Sequence to fold (370 residues):
Amino acid sequence: MKYPSNIKKNYKKPITYGNRGMDLEFLINEACKYYIENNLAIIYKKPTPIGIVEVDYNNMEIKKAYFKEPSTLDYNGIYKGKYVEFDAKECHSKTSFPLQNIHDHQIKHIKNIIVHGGIAFLIIGMNEKYFLFKGEDLLNFIKNTARKSIPYNIIKSKGQELKFNYLKGIDFLEGINIVYEELIK
Amino acid sequence: MKYPSNIKKNYKKPITYGNRGMDLEFLINEACKYYIENNLAIIYKKPTPIGIVEVDYNNMEIKKAYFKEPSTLDYNGIYKGKYVEFDAKECHSKTSFPLQNIHDHQIKHIKNIIVHGGIAFLIIGMNEKYFLFKGEDLLNFIKNTARKSIPYNIIKSKGQELKFNYLKGIDFLEGINIVYEELIK
Fold:
């Protein structure tokens, strides 16, 4: 099973915090912080869904729980009044992004967000680059091909490359703004 | 400390599930399900924020964790493209709603959502009635009075009463729509 990324973070933090500078989720969280502090957007990572089995109510400590599979995307929030939701995916293949990275109910969720006039996308980390890949492009790809993965050249051509910035982490807001402008056209 | 409501639910469920028919959170979750199934809105309860201390990676079981204090509201989602976020509060006093039910960072968050053009409110369960109380009215009350609680007559006059419906639970979408119409005016 895939480790929920923020657990991995909790788990790694004490050991390799320094190395996490290049971790996609870390860089997106830095950007979210920057956007909130500078009042540009309000975007948060959702807490990892947890099923709680046992709680010690004397000290409110959780003694037993398990990870639930997310049916939505990891981040959501608001930009210029619009609803925004996205997921961050690190891709280790240099040639293509495996669609198995996205659950079917997440695909359905992306479709719903778009139907309701929201902004949905993936941020894909691949070949040391970062791309905002629109939900619409993802759905079209799935609809129009039988392929199990998205070739890198499609991600590069359809996606918007996001710049790394030491102050902001991965600055994805400009990418959102492009989707926003298309949406309000 | 206040028990996170969905934990309380996990805890109670096996014992008093039947009684939970009147539980505010349960009735709101029913409405959310109805709205998603009928493609009217996409609103979810956020997972309770948990700090994970210890995980058994052999079976991915969480052995030790604690509840974090939420800095946002419990529910968020999308309605007609707009960002929506709200919290559900059951009030046991018949005369007034204590503001200590809402943390300062939640107030700040409500302010931010409104600044960014979103829809933020509370659903208050009080005197066996349910009211949608707008974030704007909450912020105005806090700004203009020194009172530590909102009198019931203000909740009744400013708030929109929400109807209970056996199919939908507490039908709050009409209330959201009124806020939405004001927003796009």
In short: Residues 22-179 of chain A form a domain with the Trna Endonuclease; Chain: A, domain 1 fold (CATH 3.40.1350.10). Chain A is about 35% helix and 35% strand. Chain A has a mean pLDDT of 87. Chain A touches chain B through 46 residues (CB under 8 Å).
